[in-house]
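Protein Entry — a single chain follows
Fields — amino acid sequence, structure tokens
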Amino acid sequence: MDVHVVRPGCAIALSGRLGAATVADVRAALTVAVDTGVGDLLVDLNGVELVDATGLGVLVGTHRRADRAGRRLVLTTVPPRIERLLLATRLHRVLTVDRSAGDGIFNSEHQISA
């Protein structure tokens, strides 16, 4: 799993598999982003190949943390297979998905590899 900090506290791009083995680094990066930024936290999922239950838990936990901080977690460029997963788990009712963003809207500036 690669975590690309595009704009500290504002935008992060994820790529790889978001699962039990990789969530620790993702959770840490998202926590720092929520705690240090303002406004919407954009998370680009364009490069994410797979999300398991633990990965979904990290996204929901980040959503809750952002909400408590007066912010919003916004998922962008969500691949169709992950969007289907959000629908099947009904998380599309909880998580905000921005369908207006184009492909690969972020250019990586900082990278953390897990």
Remarks:
- The first strand starts at residue 2 and ends at 7.
- The domain at 2-113 is CATH 3.30.750.24 (Transcription Regulator spoIIAA).
